Amino acid sequence: MSQRTSLRFLRRGKVVEIERLDPMLTVLDYLRLEEKSPGTKEGCNEGDCGACTVAVGTLRDGGVVYEPVNACILLMAQLDGKELVAVDDLGDSDRLHPVQQALVDSHGSQCGFCTPGFVMSLFTLYHAGVRPTRQQIVDQIAGNLCRCTGYRPIVDAAVSSCTGRAIDAWAKGARRAAEQLAALADGSDLFIGNGQGFTAVPAQAETLASLAAAHPDATIVAGATDVGLWITKQLRTLPKIIHVGGVKALHAIDNGKDILSLGAAVTYAEAEPYLAAIDPDVGEVVRRIGSKQVRASGTVGGNVANGSPIGDMPPMLIALAATLHLRHGEATRTLPLENYFLAYGKQDRKAGELVWQIDVPRLKPNERFRSYKISKRFDQDISAVMAAFKFTLAGRRVQSARAAFGGMAATPKRATRAEVALAGVSLDDAASWGRAILALAEDFQPIDDMRASAAYRAEVAQALLRKALIELAGASQTRVVGARGKAA
Ligand SMILES: Cc1cc2nc3c(=O)[nH]c(=O)nc-3n(C[C@H](O)[C@H](O)[C@H](O)COP(=O)(O)OP(=O)(O)OC[C@H]3O[C@@H](n4cnc5c(N)ncnc54)[C@H](O)[C@@H]3O)c2cc1C
Ligand code: FES
Ligand code: FES
What we know:
By secondary structure, the chain is α+β, with helices and mostly antiparallel strands. The protein has four domains: 158 residues, Beta-grasp domain (Ubiquitin-like (UB roll)); 70 residues, DNA polymerase, domain 1; 114 residues, Uridine Diphospho-n-acetylenolpyruvylglucosamine Reductase, domain 3, CATH 3.30.465.10; 121 residues, CO dehydrogenase flavoprotein, C-terminal domain (Enolase-like, domain 1), CATH 3.30.390.50. It is built from 18 helices and 21 strands. The chain has a five-stranded mixed sheet, covered by helices on one side. A five-stranded mixed sheet has the order 3-2-6-4-5. Helix 15 runs antiparallel to helix 16 and helix 16 runs antiparallel to helix 17. The N and C termini lie far apart (53 Å). The site of one FE2/S2 (inorganic) cluster has 11 residues, from loops.
């Protein structure tokens, strides 16, 4: 298959080609410093405030899907084969875009610093093809901070403008944009640079695997919601960037009867409905990971690969007994996900080896799942404690259990002593739960940091196991705000 030496993406109806590229260039810097489009703002420069939100269009099922992303931590490599829409493109002072006009009409802007980001988040909602509820609008803008106007007028603007029927220039040009994006997806491998420094976006799985193996010092990038911050906040130099998102096979979702398989490049946004179908609690935690922007770029594979002790996915995936597939050059191997996390910052993955796929078994009829994310803020916050439980029931007794926690140790980790003590407990006899709940104190010596003290984490972990058992016993309805709570 052919190799290409220029990055290509669609912008204002035309294909932009870039032949010389700093691998660390962010889309925000490209827009502001190179294209000289200053509409997109820099606020936090770490994915937290949404001021830099742009829309990225991706070809899916023959149509262009627009998603909001944080340009400050999006690398140019990630634009290959996509469409970029920035706030400067939408309208001017004579003819505003419908979402801009609605913001004016509902007094949704004061200092205006956040406004370009809100406009772009609403632009993607405008193109979502649904008339959103107020809750969906709140979810949509959870990653956009406004410190002066307040959110009610902004939500009002979304209610009045996002009607499910788009009639703007992007709606009119949708077919042509889809054709242009389809033409860009020609299966060629992008490589700009040389052996000392490069941006690579392979389209072929073999190219990706062999390139990563040949350059074990390269930085593997999926959504860059971690890697982007290495550049903008840690000021690290990353001369070799290999983006995994160009390989179609890594975007595959195999929604099998017994197992859900997710390719390493599947984003949270793509995976969310499938994970929620395994259990609503999984969907609810995914809905609370970062923001719409973070979930549109960030991947489940990246969350596993980075080995963070406070990542939200690993505890849930470990409790569900997920299997990890890794690939190094031609060699592939699989391991239970829990064995991947060796120590703080150390995973069972050698340099140049790639996370390739994650298999998540579905629940059997006698299995019940619960997961809880404890963070200081409801939205857009990293967990202090993340707990996930899978109980196998025999009638009203727990036959066996898998319990996994994040934020309680140097790695995401199973609570093995509590699991042993859970075997045989009766859901009708709360006194029988005590030993398992207390065993958590033997399982973990929690970390102590600015998110939570060790004592708080230890107490919360015990409370969460009790909560799960109370809910299972039917003594209390779930009080989660999200999916299961609404259904209950
Ligand atoms: C504002 C904000 C909010 C966030 N909120 C949350 C949250 O609520 N919960 C949470 O868990 N996380 C959160 N995160 C962290 C981040 O979103 C996740 O860790 C995310 O899953 C990382 O995925 P990514 O695809 O962006 O990975 P990247 O940033 O691309 O990569 C992360 C790491 O994994 C490696 N990597 C990625 N893919 C592969 C692969 N296929 N093979 C080998 N190595 C690979 C990279 O080299 C890097 O070391 C947040 C981040 C931000 C910026
Ligand atoms: S500048 Fe704050 S999210 Fe990008
Ligand atoms: S209008 Fe000032 S931050 Fe939103």
